[in-house]
Amino acid sequence: MIVRHISNYLYIFYSFVFALNVVHVFWSNSTLYTIIGILGIVMLAISFPRADRVFKILGVVLLVAGAFFFFSSDTTFREIPSFFAGNIGLLFLLSMLPWMNSVVKAGRYNKLLQSLLGNTANGLGSLYVRSEVTMVSLAAFLNLSSATISQDLLKEQLKDVKTEVKNSFILMATLRGYSLALLWSPLEILLATSIFITGANYLEVLPWMLLIAVLGISMDSFMGKMMFRKHQIEAPSLEKGTGKSRKKLVQFIVALVMFLAVVVFLGNVIQLDFLFAVTVSIFPFAFTWAVLVKRRRSFLQIGWPTWKWKTNHLSNFIVLLLALSFLTETLNASPYLKYLQDPLIALEGKPLLIMLFIQAAFLVMTLLGVHPLATMGIFGGVSELLIGTFPEVTLTILLSACAIATVPSAPYGLIVTITSVALRMNPYQIVLRNLPYSILLGFLGIGISLLTLLVY
């Protein structure tokens, strides 16, 4: 009883750790970073018994693998706490997402979004196309928030559909749509990192990334429509397109554009890290939005208890992300990292083979639990070799497309983990469903990269 009572107030402890992380962003201090890591270990110890079985297993595997890399490296035990601090910022973002969802619910925009998902009289095949396009539109503005909003709406809309069909539909439409939005978004960290490595001009890269996104939407929408065309559901009763609903639509679009503008301002003018800019923007923006549409009271009534409950129940995410942080840091310090770079050097002078190797490396490393950013960093270590082989624009398209293609199939990725928790599915079930798409999108990225060789 006492343990259960204490667990209701974990959000206070977690918020304290997140606050220290905010301080560290503005005051980079190694001692403070170590303290955050120590508190991260405490968070992991608290969360492990409360996590679901599958996340306990994943956490143990990641920690054991990390321990292997640690003992193969020259790092000391004193450095271990800092290895657990790397993903605290991601946990902070996860804890803030409910506020964005709450303003959508308080403003009753969820009904508007439901109308965007539209008339389902033609069955799930048509709904799949509409859902994916809606997800692409939302993800361009709301990033990870788009997944939780869209998945909540689709779960309600498909509540009478068989669980297996419903889950497949949701995880395909939302995760694939999310990845297609990341391809061209200037806010996407994988795209930004690839541009940083190559020094390419974003405006030169943008048309090619948009081409990949359009072809990807066309390809996956067709496959989804064929897969779900036999499944029928009754269309929900939706509001008519009155002036009031049109006004709400305008409000929603303006709000999303303003949120994007705020994040761009914080990132480009204030020079904040993208992830941190999104995180610290969510509550002030959501609150201001609620005030402007005169829904402040509803926003707080919905948001406060939702935020506390969600933050208290971050156990699965804490176990996964902190264990993954330990693995990534120890791998980077291990001599085994060299074995990941040697094959690329051996393929010098063979562009197509290098492209296929890069795609395979991103996919395999992602399946092993290594974040695409870490793999991107490995290729950054041999960037001079790669730039000598490919034009800057080609290399940027190749790296970013192959990295982003793995997002729906990353068993330990944030978006897959969110979906896993929302649908109560094993992450590897989600991976198996999305793996063919990731491979095809990677090939599409390679195809466009080859096309650019004719231009540059």
TrEMBL record:
Organism: Halobacillus litoralis
Transmembrane parts of this sequence: 9-26, 32-48, 55-71, 83-100, 175-199, 205-228, 249-268, 274-293, 314-332, 352-374, 395-423, 435-455
Superkingdom of the source species: Bacteria
Highest classification ranks of the organism: Bacteria, Bacillati, Bacillota, Bacilli, Bacillales
UniProt keyword list: Membrane, Transmembrane, Transmembrane helix
Protein name: Citrate transporter-like domain-containing protein
